[in-house]
Write a structure and sequence with these properties.
It is built from 12 helices and 5 strands. With about 350 residues, it is an alpha/beta fold. The longest helix has 15 residues.
């Protein structure tokens, strides 16, 4: 899973009987013990250099002053992420802890530029180059990471080794964590919290003094989150280590594994595999929607308002960035074995689950 967890949370909350059909969920998002390596002043920097996100848990460069814990995917809908994490389904999390250790380095970029033997490789490289050429500062090689694509690689590798749960690309550790959905003090919800507000009974039967009953960050400039010139106090979306009944045991990727070939200029094992898989000749060919996505089809559906009040669920995924192209590219082609499906589309997930026994 990448992106906000809204659709998956709705699916799990409205179809609890189908949880049994999901063996495992792989997630890219959050930051547990992460320290943002971007925005730090160089060793020889002048006294005018002001650290930005340096050392923060999160990576939201537009929101780090109000919420230094915010990571893009989980910050999009913290409550939805909480529901997914606490669903009871085993979870492997690839947070910023790991993705911060696998940037798009200059060496990788140049190696990729020289290795474009398939249409797919050319397409992915051009998408990546767009990001490089339009990056907002000159620190692309130290601030652009293999976020979603790295998670997909870890997931595909782990699913090929499902018995021992090992993977080729990331070091793993079990941690007890939760997802912060509101800010203390709890039990004093204000107009920011739609689950409580003026309601006599909170939505979803949430506890009136529970972890969801505090202030919910309503924007990157939410006044509640600021305390003068100090670091912002909001933690919405933070994957925090926790104990007690509110914690969930999760398998967490902590860092990218180094390249077994120490003489290589590509110092991460995933760099090598990424370029190898994307350039395999058996996958060379022009893009064809029907062959690339054999389980998808376009359907014009007209609701029957006489017999039914609601039509089928339709979800439009409007978030397709260059990072997503990197994830879509080589992830499903590592081997000719059962291929994982990653989607933030509720409709797609529901159709796949409904087709399984039980």
């Amino acid at each position: 899973m990448t992106g906000a967890h809204t659709n998956m949370a709705i699916f799990l909350m409205t179809n609890p009987d189908l949880k049994k059909n999901i063996n495992h969920i792989y997630i890219m998002g959050g930051g547990v013990r992460s320290k943002n390596p971007t925005g730090c002043c160089p060793k020889n920097a002048s006294s005018t250099c002001q650290p930005q996100q340096c050392g923060d848990h999160g990576n939201m460069f537009t929101a780090f002053r109000s919420n230094p814990y915010a990571e893009f995917n989980l910050f999009g809908d913290p409550f939805a992420a909480y529901q997914v994490f606490h669903s009871g389904i085993p979870i492997t999390l690839v947070p910023l802890d790991a993705t911060n250790t696998i940037p798009i380095t200059r060496e990788f970029f140049e190696a990729f530029e020289k290795n474009q033997r398939t249409y797919e490789a050319q397409y992915v490289f051009k998408s990546l180059k767009i990001d490089r050429d339009t990056w907002f500062d000159d620190q692309f090689y130290t601030s652009y990471f293999m976020w979603d694509s790295f998670m997909v690689g870890v997931a595909a590798s782990a699913m090929r080794n499902i018995r021992d749960e090992e993977n080729e690309f990331a070091e793993m550790e079990y941690m007890n964590i939760t997802v912060i959905t509101s800010n203390e003090p709890y039990g004093k919800p204000d107009s920011s919290n739609a689950f409580f507000g003026d309601r006599k009974i909170p939505k979803f039967n949430l506890k009136k003094n529970g972890v969801h009953s505090g202030h919910v960050q309503i924007g990157i400039q939410d006044p509640f989150c600021f305390r003068g010139n100090a670091t912002g106090i909001c933690k919405d979306g933070y994957t925090e280590e926790a104990t007690g009944p509110d914690s969930v045991r999760v398998r967490v990727a902590t860092r990218a594994k180094p390249n077994v070939d120490e003489s290589s200029t590509l110092d991460r094992e995933y760099y090598v595999n990424f370029l190898d898989v994307l350039n395999r000749p058996q996958y060379k060919g022009r893009f064809n929607f029907t062959t690339e996505f054999p389980y998808y089809k376009e359907v014009l559906y007209k609701p029957d308002f006489k017999g039914k009040k609601l039509g089928k669920i339709v979800v439009f995924d409007m978030d397709m960035s260059a990072g997503d192209f990197l994830a879509v590219g080589p992830s499903r082609r590592i081997e000719n074995k059962p291929k994982p499906c990653y989607t933030n589309s509720l409709a797609s997930a529901e159709s796949k689950l409904a087709s399984k026994p039980g």
